[in-house]
Amino acid sequence: MTRTAIVTGAGKRVGRVLAEGLLADGWTVVAHVRRETDDVPQGALKVVADLADGDGAAEAIMAACAQAPSLLVNNAARFAPDTLSRFSADELAAHMAVNVAAPALLTAAFGRAAGEGRDRLVVNILDAKLAAPNPDFLSYTLSKAALAALTTLSAQDLAARGIRVNAIAPALMLISEGQTQANFDAMHRFNPLQRGVEPADVLHALRFLVDSPTLTGETLTLDGGQRFWRLPRDVQYLDPGQS
């Protein structure tokens, strides 16, 4: 029997790369997207749900699994710019609903669905900026910090059932909305190793976690050492000419 993996936000960017990689590895992939018009990798089982809908979204995603899933990748995220001077409780709530509550609900449902006797794994996609935070993207950063806490707490809670929970925290991989191409080109490799992080690096890390049955409650930070520099702002707001 093939193993089943759930990947949220599997229609584009790194989520799509992860779904494609798992399909290549022989997994049955339940690929979550937000809109009916969103595409998923060929061979994946598409499930449409708005993660802001809470319990309903988690139930719809789990119902799409023909068997108890062995892997849950909480990849989908809200990413909108704000700072303390422009803080909005509504914006924070919107980030927390998608970036924290949805992964928590899915992780809880994953735990309830899990049978006995097989290694099961939850992987949360964080952000390398948590290792050296700056005040840009305040609500997003707060939500990812909460997801990091959820990683630790759920790893503790689910270990007795043989379920592992880990995280991957990548730095800048793909150009973001509002970011200029010049900034991306300058900042992608702006780290001590001078190596840009690619979506394939996240896939390699995911495969490592899958193949590490005694590893739980850990975060793999993929940033080329950028955290050592403790940048004062998000990279898309830094001057490429100063890099």
Q: Could you tell me the mean pLDDT?
A: 95
The portion of residues forming beta strands comes to 5-15%
Tell me, what's the shape? globular
Q: Give the N-terminus to C-terminus distance in angstroms.
A: 51 Å
* Major β-sheet annotation: 7 strands, parallel
Strand order of the largest sheet: 3-2-1-4-5-6-7
> H/E order of the elements?
EHEEHEHEHEHHE
What is the tally of beta strands?
7
Number of separate helices: 6
Q: What is the element layout, followed by pairings?
A:
Layout: E1 4-7, H1 13-24, E2 28-33, E3 45-48, H2 55-63, E4 71-74, H3 89-113, E5 120-125, H4 138-158, E6 163-170, H5 181-187, H6 199-210, E7 219-222
Parallel strand pairs: 1-2, 1-4, 2-3, 4-5, 5-6, 6-7
Family: Belongs to the short-chain dehydrogenases/reductases (SDR) family.
Keywords: Oxidoreductase
Protein name: Short chain dehydrogenase
Summary of the model, kept short:
The protein is an alpha/beta fold and 243 residues long. The protein is built from six helices and seven strands, in the order βαββαβαβαβααβ. The protein has helices at residues 13-24, 55-63, 89-113, 138-158, 181-187, 199-210, and strands at residues 4-7, 28-33, 45-48, 71-74, 120-125, 163-170, 219-222.
